[in-house]
Amino acid sequence: MEQIEPAKTLTREISCDHLVIGGGWMGLHCARRLAELDPDSSVVLVDAGRIGNNAAGRCAGFAIDLAHNPRNKHFAEDIKGNNEEYEINQEGLAYIRKSVEELGVKCDWSSEGKYHSAATAYGEANLMMFAQALDNLGQNYSWVDKQEIQSITGSRHYIKALFAPGTVLLQPAKYMHGAARALPRNCSVYENTPVTDVEYSTKPNNSNSRHICQTPGGAIRARKIYLCNTGYMTKFGFFDETAIPLYTFASLTRPLTEKESTILGARQTFGVIPADSFGTTLRRTVDNRLFLRNVYSYARNFKPSRSDLERAKRMHQVAFERRYPDLAPMGYEHSWGGMMTLAQNNGMIFGELATNVYGTGFCNGTGVSRGTAFGKALAEFALGMSSRTIDILKARPAPNRGYPKLVTELGVRMTTAYRLKKAGLEV
Question: What is the residue range of 22's domain?
Fold first, then answer.
């Protein structure tokens, strides 16, 4: 097992040209692009925890080219929106691939695609709608019958699937750790370094002015700041009361034994996306573990409750028993939650928020390819460049102010409970 070196934590006052706050998919690639494009500058990337040991590093590891939008009931007809998403995701995928091929970042990269799989007639109907969207976009896919998808997954739970070839499977924490260590030499990384206070420059047009960010162990004086900390951006003076923090939960088994692998009888690795977005995501990983993800919950004050996690773990066990009744008694080795941020109007953040303060966020899920492209584009935008992705993101609506928090929480909990029940055996 690879040894992870101790975190380098800020313990003094420093100055830099570019300060990126948040080491997820957006922040990591924003910092990398800034350092590449402005090699004579100093770039600093800070994260409140360890890069890779966060929601970004604990995701399912699907680097997608196109996903149906669970918040858009008419995604099959939204040709313009889906084409734009495809372009953005392709740019993000290409940038990740460059890390793997040119920088030597190890991440169990596998261009094996994904299976949108159904367990019920309701799920099959959802697959037909997804196929309609792919037809409208001229995208390649193929149908997988019951016998084949059961052979691939080793589970009798599935009755039909749609194979989408453009997705890459990877180990997200491994990638993020490696990519952070492969950043250009003019980029410094500080982990376990939360920004606790910001004093924005009162003379933004002065070339010598600096924004001052306080951390527990020191301070950072930055000419430009890049907020890539998703919903926490609202704690930095921008887009107050717009974030709808939503957690989704996952569980991971220990590595299967040889006997258990024989019982499973599945392909060595695979990735399954549920036909209904509130169903269960499933992976068999390179290190021979089973990963399951389902259940969404509102995260009051950006943190889930212990009861939310325990409820998710129970549902994960149910999903395990439905798919692999002979293996389910083994249970899980790890269970956790990860946050994604939505807005009432499905808006997103991109651009200059104040003089020399830039930000991007509210990725609304599917964040590996998309988040990478967002961060890369933000760096390019701040340095005066233009691109198709920048034009698309600038045209997106900004997040609007949502309902009062108690109303939002009640609405989210009721909606997620209804969607979970409606998904039925797809969970």
Answer: 13-110+171-243+343-396
